[in-house]
Design brief:
Helix content: 40-55%
CATH class: Alpha Beta
Shape: globular
Radius of gyration: 20 Å
Structural class: alpha/beta
CATH topology: Rossmann fold
Family: Belongs to the adenylate kinase family.
Pathway: Purine metabolism; AMP biosynthesis via salvage pathway; AMP from ADP: step 1/1
Strand order of the largest sheet: 2-3-1-4-8
Pfam families: ADK (PF00406), ADK_lid (PF05191)
Number of helices: 8
Largest sheet: 5 strands, parallel
CATH superfamily: P-loop containing nucleotide triphosphate hydrolases
Catalytic activity: AMP + ATP = 2 ADP
EC number: 2.7.4.3
């Protein structure tokens, strides 16, 4: 059984590592967004309750989210393990999760935090730019044009950057996530559940560390 939470700031590679964990261990990947969508599509009581808040443009209360998590963790596909992604977001939710996992008898075993320097993440996330004429996407570090300021595909010199890729927007997003994640990291460190891995390396090197941590779990 591998019951884990996967944490990391935007751009740290959490999505990539979640896919690799699922492929390797065949466990359920539970992201908050997918969980809400599934429950609403299935028309479960809790799903409809969540929908009423979302349709009104309100945040779903912790109590309703917790019920959804419990409903999801009660499903058979989590019997061999699960990755929680996007929940908990606060220490209050983390305390709720302790009760939930006790109720469904699927205790949390590890919290894996992929660590990357926030400055590096701003570089990673704000380096993308797009050709306005043909839509080709580039990255100033990882995928630059072959000739500076010239699109490889159409030869245009007309590039733009999406609003949410701009450095000041990316920086704010990372700051908000850092502020939210820090108390959770402290919470799970005190519980002895936290494992931090260096996310600045290749995806395979990062996964090797995660795999080592998960291999020790029963």
């Amino acid at each position: 059984m591998k019951n884990i939470i996967l944490m990391g700031l935007p751009g740290a590679g959490k999505g990539t590592q979640a896919e690799m964990i699922v492929d390797n261990y065949q466990i359920a990947h539970i992201s908050t967004g997918d969980m809400f969508r599934e429950a609403m599509a299935e028309g479960t009581q809790v799903g409809l309750e969540a929908k009423s808040f979302i349709d009104a443009g309100n945040l779903v209360p912790d109590e309703v989210t917790a019920k959804l998590v419990e409903e999801r963790l009660s499903k058979a596909d989590t019997n061999d393990g699960y990755i929680l992604d996007g929940f908990p977001r606060t220490t209050v939710q983390a305390e709720m999760l302790e009760s939930i996992t006790a109720n469904v008898n699927k205790p949390l075993q590890k919290v894996i935090n992929i660590e990357v320097d926030p400055k590096l993440l701003v570089e990673r996330l704000s380096g993308r730019f797009i050709c306005r004429d043909c839509g080709a996407t580039y990255h100033k570090i990882f995928n630059p044009t072959k000739v500076e300021n010239t699109c490889d595909r159409c030869g245009s010199h007309n590039f733009y950057q999406r609003e949410d890729d701009k450095p000041e927007v990316v920086k704010k997003r990372i700051e908000v996530n850092l502020e939210m994640n820090t108390p959770l990291i402290d919470f799970y460190r005190e519980k002895g559940l936290l494992i931090s891995v260096d996310g600045t390396r290749s995806r395979d090197e990062v996964f090797a560390d995660i795999n080592e941590a998960l291999s020790s779990l029963n």
